[in-house]
Write a structure and sequence with these properties.
This protein is an alpha+beta fold. The chain contains 12 helices and 23 strands. Strands 9, 11, 12, 13, 14, 16, 17, 18 and 19 form a 9-stranded antiparallel β-sheet that branches. A 6-stranded mixed β-sheet has the order 1-2-6-3-7-21, with helices on one face. Strands 4-5-23-22 form a 4-stranded antiparallel β-sheet. Helix 2 packs across helix 4, helix 6 runs antiparallel to helix 7 and helix 6 packs across helix 8. It is elongated, with a radius of gyration of 24 Å.
């Protein structure tokens, strides 16, 4: 289907996106895409270099007549979230994304599409390669590892860039101009536990939670989507309370920035409770499905008899951990009191892995208020420490404070209205953009974020709207024409 994608308008953008999507580019595994981008810049004869952390910077002089305009930094991140459906056979380390067109949308076959932030990268590539697009002097900044720590933005040193305006192309609503974002921090709870031999009178069951939509743990955290880890814990808690269920292992969720779609547990119960247990699980499963019928119509919960596991968790630790998971905040914690409809603070209970004597629980806490972010992180820390877990904070990054007086915001707002006959939605978002981090070393840079419509980011349902990409491309070209003088 790559050929059909390449024929879409604007062809220069979609061709670059197809080229990029042929290159594996998981977070923290960006070696190939770094080399790809470096070769791209060098083949164009442009000044190209890779900084000490792996960010790629390509500089292009202004076109004729634009030399006196402010230098613009165009920025997107090279890495993408790698998620696939359980029944999809795909190797992200060796295969390029398999795309197809469905109506007005470009999708991928059972995997994430990489439109986040591949469409931004492709936009910049198309402009760097162009010979007929007017623009001021450009500095293309391609950062690494945005999705799992923002270490590229954090490692970018001051003095490498001279631009006075930064266009971040990582927003996913085409009528939105972003002027602020949330900061984030990873909260990880770990501990060891003693495994006990499973008594002979117990039988085994596999419990699976599948069919949830998943999605972006920032932009979609307010949508009431199901969290597989919370649903699974509810089932396990009920099973223990009523039938003395014992846990052998749990494997739920994946990446911190993706709402968990699936979870699997292997458990043991007394054989005498088999029929009552199955009836209870069916009843609570139906209740959960009814609660989530609007947002999660494809939710499926299965309880299947299996061989009894050889070992189960220490009882006291099992009780503590299941209670901590029940108590841990998931979803919206507080809405902004200053910006209508903006989530201020949230948490995503992203990963629960309990197996072979080890517990790991991973969360991503976000907030546009730094003190609230730390407060919620400490709430989670206290919850898990009460169970004997060690809790570590990592990957802390700042938010981006809105600047409503931004000069480039005023230019872009007028251009958007002239092009589309309506005003854009000027807003902060609950996602983690790199602007806040970049601003620490470039505090005088005027920053803005925008992009085309992308739905279902961070999940295999990710899709990019073709008509929106066309609208966005026209907007990009007009912005570059109207960059103010220095």
């Amino acid at each position: 289907m790559s050929k059909e994608i390449r024929q879409l308008q604007p062809t220069q953008l979609w061709n670059k996106f197809a080229d990029l999507n042929a290159v594996p580019r998981a977070s923290k595994k960006e070696e190939r895409v770094i080399a790809f981008m470096k070769a791209f810049g060098e083949n164009l004869g442009l000044e190209t270099f890779v900084d000490e952390v792996g960010n790629v910077i390509i500089k292009k002089p202004a076109t004729a007549g634009m030399e006196n305009r402010t230098t613009v930094v165009m920025q997107s991140h090279l890495d993408m979230v790698h998620q696939k459906n359980n029944d999809t056979v795909f190797d992200f380390d060796t295969q390029g994304i398999e795309m197809y067109i469905e109506g007005d949308w470009v999708k991928a076959k059972g995997t994430t599409l990489g439109a986040d932030n591949g469409l931004g990268v492709a936009t910049i590539m198309a402009i760097l390669e162009s010979t007929d697009i007017p623009h001021p002097a450009l500095e293309a900044l391609f950062t690494i590892d945005e999705e799992t720590g923002m270490t590229g933005a954090m490692g970018l040193k001051g003095g490498l860039l001279e631009g006075g305006i930064l266009l971040n192309l990582d927003t996913e609503e085409d009528d939105e101009i972003g002027v602020g974002c949330a900061g984030g921090i990873d909260v990880t709870a770990t501990r060891k536990y003693t495994e006990e031999e499973t008594p002979e009178f117990k039988i085994g069951f596999t419990i699976e939670v599948i069919g949830l939509q998943g999605g972006h743990s920032g932009m979609q955290i307010h949508e009431g989507l199901g969290n597989a880890n919370k649903i699974m814990n509810r089932l396990l808690f009920d099973g223990f309370e009523n039938f003395g269920l014992r846990i052998s292992e749990i494997d739920g969720g994946g990446l911190r920035n993706a709402i968990p779609r699936e979870s699997k547990a292997i458990v043991a119960i007394d054989a005498m409770h088999e029929n009552a247990f199955l009836l209870e699980m069916a009843q609570i499963s139906n209740s959960i499905k009814m609660e989530l019928k609007t947002t999660e119509p494809d939710l499926d919960i299965t309880v299947t008899k299996c061989e009894a596991p050889k070992t189960i968790m220490d009882l006291g630790i099992q009780e503590g951990v299941t209670r901590a998971l029940y108590a841990s905040q998931n979803g919206v914690y507080r809405m902004s009191a200053d910006i209508p409809d903006l989530v201020e603070t949230s948490n995503n209970l992203a990963r629960v892995l309990i197996k072979e004597g080890n517990i790991k629980i991973a969360c991503l806490t976000r907030s546009s208020v730094e003190s609230a972010k730390i407060d919620l992180a400490n709430t989670l820390r206290a919850t898990f420490e009460l169970t004997g877990c060690e809790v570590a904070f990592s990957g802390d990054y700042p938010g981006w404070s809105p600047n409503i007086d931004s000069a480039i915001l005023k230019v872009m707002t007028k251009l958007y209205e002239d092009l589309n006959g309506e005003k854009p939605h000027v807003a902060a978002c609950h996602a983690g953009l790199e602007c806040g981090i970049l601003g620490t070393n470039y505090p005088e840079m005027d920053m803005i974020s925008f992009g085309p419509n992308i739905k279902g980011a961070h999940s295999p349902d990710e899709r990019a709207q073709i008509s929106s990409v066309q609208k966005y491309w026209k907007f990009v070209l007009e912005i570059l024409k109207h960059i103010p003088e220095q």
